[in-house]
Amino acid sequence: MIPSALECVQEIARSGDRIAVFLDYDGTLTPIVSHPEDAWLPDSMRQTLRSLAARVPVAILSGRDLDDVRGRVLVDGIVYAGSHGFDIASAGGLRRELGAAYLPVLDKAETELREAIDEIPGAQLERKHFSVAAHYRNVNENDAFRVALAVDAVGAKHRELRRMDGRKVYELLPDIDWNKGKAMLWLLETLGLEGRNALPIYIGDDRTDEDAFRALDQQGIGILVSEQSPFTVARYSLKNPAEVEEFLATLAARLVA
């Protein structure tokens, strides 16, 4: 079992002079819920993020659409990256968007996939700006494979797209060599947060966050949010969003001292 980030927060805070914090949203800042639209940020977590963002750079990297995650967090002064890093913006004018040329094929994939999973009880299709997501959290276990088959069938018709697996969700998105890890590295370079004394911290709970953990390698700290002990390249763990909030609040307090 990898060590708890809560138990090592002082050690983590001392690991670099210029800390930057990158966070997933669902399962990290909010608990996983049956319906993604019901995942709202608690006010206490919002206040913690504001406190932290007043001290160090903070970015939210989510699979959600940019406007969706920005409207749920509602904290000024931080960077938002939606669609797994395909759509990045900040109040300071920072802007990067990848995949606009793929929107027509995503439109076609959405129509075809919606028709394909329409008869699978509990399956939910979500169209994001740069991806099409098929959620199977509420699908009977015996029917879950049908969702994967439907996604693969549509993906086979549109080779410009690739499948990405998340927590109880399959997504089709542009087949571009880009992910949360690459988005984080781009942000570190763009924001001038590179060098030996820089310490990027990434906290996430999903398979898609492993790209960011791997990207950090020896130049930062990955923290997995999970109550289990799955294989991960993260160096530390937190059990749930409540522990994430406690860690961030403790870190912010430590940065004042």
Describe what you observe in this structure.
- This protein is of the alpha/beta class and 257 residues long.
- It contains eight helices and twelve strands.
- The chain has an eight-stranded mixed sheet, with helices on both faces.
- A hairpin with a 4-residue loop joins strand 3 and strand 4 (87-90).
- The chain is globular and about 55 Å long.
- It starts with 8 loop residues before the first helix and ends with a helix.
Quick summary:
With 257 residues, the protein is α/β, with parallel strands linked by helices.
What features would you highlight for this structure?
globular, 257 residues, 8-stranded mixed sheet, alpha/beta
The main pleated sheet reads as: 8 strands, mixed
Strand order of the largest sheet: 5-4-3-2-1-10-11-12
The rounded Rg comes to 18 Å
Distance between the termini: 30 Å
How does the overall form come out from the CA principal axes? globular
| Residue-averaged pLDDT | 93
Number of helices: 8
Structural class: alpha/beta
Uncertain regions: pLDDT < 50 for 5+ in a row? none
Taken as a percent bin, the fraction of beta residues is 15-25%
Q: Roughly how much helix do the residues carry, as a percent range?
A: 25-40%
The total count of strands amounts to 12
Element string (H = helix, E = strand): HEHEHEEEHEEHEEHEHEEH
